[in-house]
Design goal:
Helices cover 27% and strands 22% of the residues. It is built from four helices and six strands, in the order βαβαβββαβα. The protein has a six-stranded mixed beta sheet, sandwiched between helices. The longest helix has 12 residues.
């Protein structure tokens, strides 16, 4: 039986002038070459959690069921904030626990949220400043 090609979206505040979004895609493709990675946007205003939450709300449900939405707008990177996976009846969300999923989670009826703690899913050398690469991309 052929493996289904997962859809993974990316929504970040990285901008397009640097390599950060490309590095995350490289991690995803290294771990799963059959994945389909779709950019929602990388032009969220720096650390604007509310803007990211609204952009995600406006588009997430237009993707196929089973899509994994990765959101990295993370003013608390390197702090004690949690990293989470939220599962709804149709989608998965991988993000910091900072409110960036708040609009989506209010809209969805069936939600299970788990903290990301199993380090076997992380890249081997964990950075304090690039959890998008080291945690969110490999978990997706």
């Amino acid at each position: 039986m052929a493996q289904k090609r997962p859809f993974i979206t990316m929504l970040t505040d990285f901008g397009l002038q640097d390599t950060y979004a490309a590095i995350m895609k490289g991690v995803i493709y290294t771990l799963n070459p059959s994945a389909v990675v779709i950019d929602i946007s990388h032009n969220i205003k720096p650390q604007d959690v509310q803007q990211a939450a609204f952009q995600l709300l406006s588009c997430y449900r237009y993707f196929p069921k089973g899509t994994i939405h990765v959101v990295v707008v993370d003013p608390g990177v390197g702090s004690a904030r949690k990293m989470i996976v939220a599962k709804t009846s149709d989608y998965y969300f991988v993000a910091p626990d900072n409110g960036v999923l708040s609009y989506v989670l209010q809209k969805e009826r069936s939600v299970v949220i788990r903290e990301i703690t199993n380090k076997k899913y992380f890249l081997q050398k964990l950075s304090n400043t690039f959890h998008g690469r080291d945690v969110f991309a490999p978990v997706a």
